[in-house]
Amino acid sequence: MSRLKELRKYVDEELNKIEDADKRTSAVAHLYGVSLAATMIAKKRGMNPEIASMAAMLHDMHAYMTGSYDDHAHKGAELAREILTELKLTDETETNMICSAIYHHDDKLVTDAPMDEVLKDADVIDHCFKDASKPVKEKEQARYEKLCTEFGLL
Ligand SMILES: [Fe+2]
Ligand SMILES: [Fe+2]
Fold first, then answer.
1. Which terminus of the chain has a lower count of CB atoms within 10 Å, N or C?
2. Residues 120-135: pLDDT tens digits?
3. pLDDT over 70 for what percent of the chain?
């Protein structure tokens, strides 16, 4: 089984514990949507798509498991480290890269390390393209426009 598949199996099992069916569906859709976008963006930028996709699968897990978005990026990075340590799928450098991306993913207005940026952008792609009839959030507007330019979507 691939590392990504193994991680998804773990994430799927955790998400299945969410009792509310609508919340469960939107959690699954978001993590898989961001994972797909992260793969594309990483490939485009010459980054590791597998690591990007793994970061995406874990990035909002803390919020989904606790039901709270309070400081979910920073707490989520700690949770991701626990999960990755338990699953033993990644080496230290990969774990650090994934946890850094999750730690910074809510800081959409600043620029961080390249893999951090892949996850932020993938999050924005999922938010904006899941329902293109919805207005783009103000804090995601600049990033959204840059992505449209980068991917020739204007
Ligand atoms: Fe988030
Ligand atoms: Fe997210």
1. C
2. 999 999 999 999 999 9
3. 100
Contact 55, 119 (CB under 8 A): yes
For residue 154, pLDDT beyond 90: no
Q: How many CB atoms lie within 10 A of CB 30?
A: 19
Beta-carbon neighbours within 5 Å of ion ligand 1: 60
Ligand nearest to the CA of 107: 1
- Cβ neighbourhood burial of 135 (10 Å; 0-12, 13-18, 19+): exposed
Ligand index nearest the alpha carbon of residue 127: 2
What are the residue ranges spanned by the domains of the chain? Answer: 3-122
Please provide the average confidence, as pLDDT, over all residues in the chain: 97
Evaluate if pTM is beyond 0.90: yes
CATH architecture of 3-122: Orthogonal Bundle (1.10)
